Amino acid sequence: MALGRREFLKNAGTCVGGASAIALGFAPPQAFAQETRQYKLLRAKETRNNCTYCSVGCGLLMYSLGDGAKNAKPSIFHIEGDPDHPVSRGSLCPKGAGLVDFIHSEGRLHYPSYRAPGSKEWQRISWEEATDRIARLLKDDRDKNFIEKNEKGETVNRWLTTGMLASSAASNETGLLDFKFARSMGILALDCQARLCHGPTVSALAPTLGRGAMTNNWVDIKNANVVLIMGGNPAEAHPVGFKWVMEAKIRNGAKVMVVDPRFNRSAAVADFYAPIRAGSDGAFLLGVINYLLTHDQIQHEYVKSYTNAPFVVREDFSFHDGLFSGYDPDKRSYDKTSWAYERDAQGYAVVDPTLQNPRCVINLLRQHAARYTPEVVAQITGTPEKDFLHVCETLAATSVPHLTSTILFALGWTHHTNGTQIIRTAAMIQLLLGNVGMAGGGLNALRGHSNIQGYTDLGLLSLRLPGYMNLPKDSQQTLDSYMQAVVPPADEPEQVNYWHNTPKFFVSLMKTLWGEHATPANSWGYDWLPKWDRSYDMLAYFEMMYQGKVNGYIAQGFNPLAAMPDKNRMRDALSKLRFLITMDPLDTETSNFWQNEGTYNDVKPEDIQTEVFRLPASCFAEENGSIVNSARWLQWHFEGASPPGEAWNDGHIIGTIFTKLRALYAKEGGICPDPVLNMQWNYKEPEDPTPEEVAKEANGYALADITDDKGNIVVRRGELLPDFSVMKDDGSTASYCWIFAGSWTEAGNQMARRDNTDTGLGATPGWAWAWPANRRILYNRASLDVQGRPWDPKRQIIAWDGHHWSGADVPDYPVTSPPNSGIGPFIMHSEGVGLLFAGGDKLVDGPFPEHYEPTETPVVASALGKTTLRNPAARFFADEKPRMGGPEQYPYVATTYSITELFRHWTKHSRLNAIMQPEQFVEIGDKLADKLGIHAGDMVRVSSHRGYIEAKAVVTKRLKRLNVMGKDLDQVGVPCHWGFKGATRKGYLANTLTPAIGDANSQTPEFKAFLVNVEKV
Ligand code: SF4
To answer: What is the pTM of this model?
Structure first.
């Protein structure tokens, strides 16, 4: 019998005696002599964890030695894939395989250090000195600049001169502490990596489907009949998740199609590849919608019953010359009054089930998309028309009820001024095909960083609260006015309209934040939340920083100098700070922004008066806690070793600074001390809260006995909440993040569960815990018709048993509402259906998607014949205009991307990964290389209007020359992993090239399409 490694270890107990006997000299002299060498993992401690890089969330087994002997500190010496993990099943990609080198990287920080204003050096300081000084700086800046009232005399309680970036790989428990810390002080400029990656996914999917997250999950991809990969390259960026694409292809006969500017590694194993001009995906997808509607290849019954296709739109809504009705060119924004349904006498939306009314959504959409003919799409995108039609035909084949396509995308769609609308178009395609809610269907937004889904869920974005609630703004001076604005009225009678529960979620949050100090008399501490007058997203805040309006900044697990666009300008912005605090396991470019690194970072340290604190943090392997993978699974991980040297866990750092700050307020007083002093921080050790107590706080408690409608007690006072359905708006429940309720209940830590039983179609509800309510496929009621019959009996995931809904997955529907109840499956929407027309305030740039060119584009006249070429609602700072280039000077389209062996700017600190990809390169098509006389391996300079990088040229056929609007167009590929710190050779930060302009809805920067020139050096 061949034993696997796991079986071997299980049987190890019986083997030890034998091994010892061999070691004692009873071994046969020859044949078994080698076995005296002990198995390398035998005496090791095994600890479970998850990979810290991408959000596939692969399971890890970490092995450490140092078994409690005196002075023997455990040290992790081996990491391998967890074979029991239902997604990764023992696999790790080259990034995960190098994790030991990350933990032991020479770039790890071991003790706090300090850089004095104008200094050229770091100096070591103690934690006490560092945290004392930081608390002092924060308090002084806050007291001096805190704004209690705005010009109108409205209470706003905000602090704008210091901001904070929260990590994307730290645990949820750290994120909760980050939020309490920052918001108690009134910080509005609080952001996380989601701003720079999947912001547009949330802005697109929430208005279209109800929630802004990946609809299905990694394993479910295997159920698809067609896989469209566009705006992402999972074979490189999510390699282990990609195995489920191969599973669909090999075992389910799925057709895999890739549409991408490069013939990438996903394309290499796909059935079909189509090239496309970076930045034109919106036109391609609108062309698909036109194809589906003109060829009548939609899932009719689904579209009629489960989308707002039959809803009738107001007469005054219109679209002309690239602009929707209500546009104000001076403000670059829309009055959205006309983006609405007709209303009946009761105020409900008018619906025409016959779809005959020309103002029905489906008819307006048909008219809107009709401009995107195959010929026009080919002209805009450069995709050959036959390739485009092949994609259309293959997708259209899944409009029948028993076939599904899934769409996989990532930053290739988000990193555009038009990112939200690109993703929304894809979601609309899936609604038209009847693929949302189906096993093997949906919109699989492949999140990047290991916990960026969690940090988005936790509300660590400038204008958000946990659980996708909004932070109140200036005009919402009372809790009532806030609720009036955020609780959606009913659009249709009898729909679930789940957001009508917002008051329960909001009050439960406030009870978590301010505990006993949150009372009905003070509207649960409503005034203590900072109110906003405008967005303080990262782009906006760095603009303020550049203008000298920001004094302090905290970068926790974040390297903004490498991550933000237009690096040289960002460096100049950081130079204007009075103080910068970094918390990171690694020595980042950001903490060293003041160092002269020659051509890579050409600054004069003596001119930079910023004092910098570099605080060493633990990494994933050195803490307990939970992270959320792309599929919304909260997975609990365990500490395998202590952090190196004097490094602290992030919670310890935040807890210590906050405790010192509160002590200063208690002793000295200061401006608006109440939200700081009243913030509930009742952890056993306030300086170092444990992840376990914080995780329970995120789930929430009953503060009084909770009763049902009949008066029966369902949760006793002091017990953990079983789910969010028991939450109250009377202060009797506390929960930090309503969608996490159920993650740690009286039954224990649900996130640590490890039952990988497949309950059907690859669902493993016993493994970890998924929000909301442990559902693995969102909107799964839409996988059955109105009568409750599955569209495809082979992929039935829930069923009605005469009394309840149940099945392989948790129903996304009121569990006792029978078929034919009239309740729609998109329960978060007031209409109960998916939205092809997203009116009201949902989007800033139009209720239908429209293709707009990137800010820097080679196209000078629209193939659609409109004069509005670029997104008219994208925010444009006046200072940025001179930093944009045109096609005369910069004739090539560049796009940034990631490669398999490296993860952003982290893995360059890991020796194994640095060996695999030691040196910076750019990809250039062979025809462009011929034209410029460049050979493989030559050094080239790639320049934009903002700066240049120099790197080795990889000359390739992977980047085809395209024909766009009758002209040849070449594209340049710029991987984004190197910098001036780490174990690789020094390189340029790729963001030196990219423009500082963001998606109109989420302000996520346009990293994926900009103009450059290329020269041989
Ligand atoms: S980087 Fe992603 S795919 Fe690779 S091992 Fe880590 S979690 Fe898995």
So the answer is: 0.95
